[in-house]
Predict the 3D structure of the following.
Amino acid sequence: MGNQLHAQFRALADPTRLAVVERLLRGAATVSELAKPFDMALAPFMKHLSVLERSGVITSKKVGRIRICAINPKAMARIEDWFSDRRALWESRLNALESYLDRNRQQ
């Protein structure tokens, strides 16, 4: 697994950061909007956003005094590709097991 993908999974492993990503999947949001549901000061919340941004899962831009965060679609595509590859691998293994069991049942 590449370093970038490893960092993305590590970033998503935290419940707060995962909740932020789930919210951003519905559309871009300001830092204030993202922080509102969490019972924490802004400084620790910003650290969560920083981890997500450094891992490449989200992007942010400053518009005046407001920071707007959004999902990085390329990062989400890489994560989805990783899961798709694993799904295909396990499906082929399970199909092979099923074929093996069918052959043995017939004998």
Strands lie at 29-30, 58-63, 66-71.
